[in-house]
Amino acid sequence: MVCTVVEIMSISTERHSDTFEFGIHTFGDVTSTPDGSRRLTQPEVLRNLLAEATLADRVGIDVVGIGEHHRPDYAVSAPDVVLSAIGAATERIKLISAVTVLSSDDPVRVYQRFATIDGLTGGRAEVSLGRGSFIESYPLFGYDLSDYEKLFEEKVDLFVTLRSEGPVTWTGETRAGLQDQEIFPKTEHPHGLPTWIAVGGTPNSVVRAARHGVGLELAIIGGAPHRFAPLVDLYHRALEQFGHGKDFRVASHSHGFVAETDQQAQEIFYPSWAESMHRIGQERGWGGGYPSREQYEQEITHGALFVGSPETVAEKIVRTQKQLGISRFGLKYGNGSLAHEHMMKAIELYGTQVKPLVLEQLGRGAHSVDSP
């Protein structure tokens, strides 16, 4: 059954959830010292990342997401290993990949690794599956970019099949098939590992998440969040069309930073953000120089940057929740060379001030729920 022709409506339906979760996401960006005099080593970044996640657990943040990259400006290439260390050092925070680049990995091994983390941490592991924002992993692990679509589609299909945690029979073109084989360890979740598919904004990707009956995670990294409302509506309608019902959740992920005041947040975050945008732009042929301060401020006011005081960031999260009906918001709190010390303060403010302000305005609670 193909559902790529489902009409996208321009009017979204506001949806409410009894719970709302707050996440932090990081790719382990290689950072600098606060005075900018030295770049940290990747081992230093990894140790700092563990301290950041431990603080997040202490201040009541609900989820920590660790990304996967295979390039010099990021320290994390094995999110599951980092999440294991975080799980051992924390008590309650959920542990999710952000994302697992499934196209260049093996679904069986991914499932086994995260099921192991889940067992060790009492059911706190989740997986967010994506194709990644960079392509370095494809040649690194011997995959052909011409198979970009086929690799992801087949491997997601196998991963979702593994969630039954029973004997699996599966055939495909991208790996050897399975014949009545079981995967260990099992989890204690009623529907297998909580799983999301991360999408960048294409209708076909949204329909894929609905077809497989997993959560939808929207990467909103440019433009106004409300532009994604038709995609959320498409997801819910496609879920019903595929017979999955309505009990599936939508999360969003955006870059941001919290400081005591709007001015302080903007001043601290701008240099690292501009540097990162310029570097990626040069790699991808966007051209031009560093983004201007005016562009930056426009993206804060009208776009996808959640930068400001606790009050400002909370207000924007509330607005996004009401526009999209999300039940989880993930803040990508680090960016480029932004110093660890600044990130620690942002995490503290996010947990102790932003979270209570959002929950007060939404008039609901935030507690652990089992995701799709």
Question: What would you say this structure looks like, in words?
Answer:
This protein has 372 residues and is α/β, with parallel strands linked by helices. It has one domain: Luciferase-like domain (TIM Barrel), CATH 3.20.20. 42% of the residues lie in helices and 15% in strands. It has helices at 42-58, 79-89, 107-120, 137-140, 148-162, 203-212, 229-241, 262-284, 293-302, 310-324, 340-362, and strands spanning 21-26, 63-66, 94-97, 100-101, 125-130, 168-170, 178-181, 195-199, 215-219, 250-258, 306-308, 328-332. Strands 1-2-3-5-8-9-10-12 form an 8-stranded parallel β-barrel, surrounded by 8 helices. A hairpin with a 7-residue loop joins β6 and β7. α1 (42-58) crosses α2 (79-89). The radius of gyration is 20 Å and the shape is globular. The two termini are 21 Å apart.
Strand content: 15-25%
| Residue runs with pLDDT of under 50 for 5 or more positions | 1-17
SS element count, helices: 11
- Please indicate the count of domains: 1
Comma- or semicolon-separated keywords:
372 residues; TIM Barrel; eight-stranded parallel barrel; two-stranded antiparallel ribbon; 42% helix; 15% strand; globular; disordered N terminus
Give me a quick take on this structure.
It is built from 11 helices and 12 strands. The chain is of the alpha/beta class.
